[in-house]
Amino acid sequence: MKRRYWIAGLSVIAVALLIGLGVWGYQEHQMKKTVMINAENHYQQAFHELTYYVDSLEESLGTALAMQSRESMRPQLVETWRLSALAHAAANELPLTFLPFNRTNEFLAHVGEFTYNTGVKTINDRPLSNKESKNLAKLYTESMTIRDELRDVQSKVMSQHLRWMDVEQALKSKKQNQDNQVIDGMKRVDGQATDYTQSFSPENPRNVVLEKKKINPMKGAQIKSSQAVDNLKKWVNKPHAQTRKVTQTGKGSNVPAYEIAMKDKGRSLNASVTKKGGHIAWFLFERPVEKETINLYDASKRSETFLKQRQVKDMILTKRNKYNHVAVLTYVLQKNGVRVYPASMRIKVALDNGEILAFDQTDYLFNKYDDVPLQPKLSESEARKQLNPNLKVQESDLAVFQNAMLKNVLCYEFFATRANDTYRVMLNAENGDQEKIELLKE
């Protein structure tokens, strides 16, 4: 009898050990899975930032080509210089240590070098030389090719749910016959930069990112994390969402806020809520959108309803874009008939069912814009004289714009065409200076 109890006791202990090992193994697996997810998210963010900055870089270079003098071109070249630094930094965050990506980095360095020497370092206002003009045109052409290749890789990554962690593992394995569309695509991107970089010395300029915008002080009382969660649930209309994690921004952050992660019916919701006033700075739902059943007009109506229900007033739609079955709509504050661009909001709408996937009002909340007089000193006809004579004006208005010196200024906003291109030109309404020219995309 005792022997039977002894065997039964050993069995219980063995089962307990097996359960303990199973729990430990599961926890280890979950921990490893969490680390992998965080790394993958970091790589995905870096790649999409790289694609965005190269896209913006191409647009910025194309804009510079339409400018008349070095003086008017200088702010645009400074912006291009900034974008080259941001693209360079994003590229360095990708797991490309084992993959030759030096040609693309060299290209970005050359963009930075050219724009630094031409627009930042040079203090005279002489016109660009023929050689400088040719170099600018060549940079623009090469940037378009690299942009298209990056867009192709981005499309495959998103449509086929490709993982950057798989890229890293494939690169580390050093296999010669790698069948990985991301690796092949990035090699093509690098190859597109080869012809350009071989004709210039690979000097790396000291690119720096311009200082951060001055922050508008938040209105309202300080709130607790529980209040921030309640505010978020009301804002997104998800009263039963489960709170997964609430953290605070670190000391020294420009705007102290609560970073909140939630789950609602199996879907992730991430957001940022300011500590002072409990304002929803941004939120993001995560889900794939595979098809389109509504158009951009329908999406804009959904976004207008969203703003109206939250009592957001005096906003006007200024830009509509579409990426991968998602509409991205930009709204700006309209004050006394003047568009205030520093006070902007962005809304993402799923084109399959019209759901609001993301909302971002950080510019609207944080940028200062109340100190700008809304009465111009120059007449519109006087401002038009400062435009490139090759541009044909189609539309004009007044707008507040934040220039390269991070100063808000009142401008005449001209929409004009040249050949097959459409531009938006911002001319200072006080002195006629060309503050910004933008090449608009369809």
Q: How would you explain this protein's 3D organization?
A:
This protein is an alpha+beta fold. It has three domains: 167 residues; 142 residues, no CATH class; 61 residues, no CATH class. A hairpin with an 8-residue loop joins β1 and β2. α1 runs antiparallel to α4 and α4 packs antiparallel against α6. The chain is globular, with a radius of gyration of 26 Å. About 5% of the residues have low confidence.
Assign a percent range to the helix content. Answer: 40-55%
Main sheet characteristics = 12 strands, mixed
Shape: globular
- Element order: H for helix, E for strand: HHHHHHHHEEEEHEEEEHHEEEE
Percent strand equals 15-25%
Q: Outline the low-pLDDT stretches.
A: 192-213
Domain count: the total is 3
The total of beta strands comes to 12
Mean pLDDT, to the nearest integer, reads 77
How do you describe this structure in short?
The protein has helices at 2-65, 70-92, 102-121, 130-159, 164-173, 181-192, 194-197, 225-236, 296-309, 362-366, 380-384, and strands at residues 242-248, 257-264, 267-274, 280-285, 315-323, 326-335, 338-350, 356-360, 392-402, 408-418, 421-428, 434-440. It is of the alpha+beta class and 442 residues long. A hairpin with a 2-residue loop joins strand 2 (257-264) and strand 3.
Defining key terms:
alpha+beta, 442 residues, 3 domains, globular, single chain, twelve-stranded mixed beta sheet, 11 helices
What order do the helices and strands come in, and which of them pair?
Blueprint: H1 2-65, H2 70-92, H3 102-121, H4 130-159, H5 164-173, H6 181-192, H7 194-197, H8 225-236, E1 242-248, E2 257-264, E3 267-274, E4 280-285, H9 296-309, E5 315-323, E6 326-335, E7 338-350, E8 356-360, H10 362-366, H11 380-384, E9 392-402, E10 408-418, E11 421-428, E12 434-440
Parallel strand pairs: 7-9
Antiparallel strand pairs: 1-2, 2-3, 3-4, 4-8, 5-6, 6-7, 7-8, 9-10, 10-11, 11-12
Helix pairs in contact: 1-2, 1-4, 2-3, 3-4, 4-6
